[in-house]
Amino acid sequence: MRLRTAADRLKIEHSIIDGVREILERLLAENAGIRSVVPGVIRTVRDARGKARVRITVPTTNGWKAIALSAGARQELFVSTAMTKAELEQAFVRAAAK
Question: What is the pTM of this model?
Fold first, then answer.
C-alpha cells in the first residue's frame, strides 16, 4: 500500500490529531536530519488536554517512537532519524513553541 505524503517526508496513512500536523510540518522544515515521520493509530485517552505535545518514548530500528497527545487523543509517531533522543526532544520543543 502506498502512503500519501506531505512534502515527501510526512507520510499520511491515518488522520493526524488536532494541532500535531503543524508541529510535524515545522519539525521537518527545520531538521534535515529527519528522514520521515509516519503517524500511527489514534486512540482516545483522558489525560490529553491542552496544547498538543509530543513525548519521545523508545528507540526503533531506524529512529524513535513518539507519542503525540492532544484533544483527548494520543497518536503514535514513528520518526526515522539518526538524531539522539535529546536532540529529537529539543527539535520537537522548538517546533511546538512556534
Answer: 0.85
Q: What range defines the domain where residue 47 resides?
A: 4-97
- Specify the number of domains making up the chain: 1
Q: Which tens digit of pLDDT belongs to each residue from 32-43?
A: 999 999 999 899
Per-residue pLDDT tens over the stretch 78-90:
999 999 999 999 9
Hey, what long-range contacts does 15-18 have (CB within 8 A, 24 or more apart)?
15/42, 16/75, 17/42, 17/52, 17/68, 17/70, 17/71, 17/73, 17/74, 17/75, 18/52, 18/70, 18/71
Identity of the amino acid at 91: A
CA-CA distance, 21 to 96, in Å (whole number)? 10
Q: Residue 9 and residue 15: Cα distance in Å, rounded?
A: 16
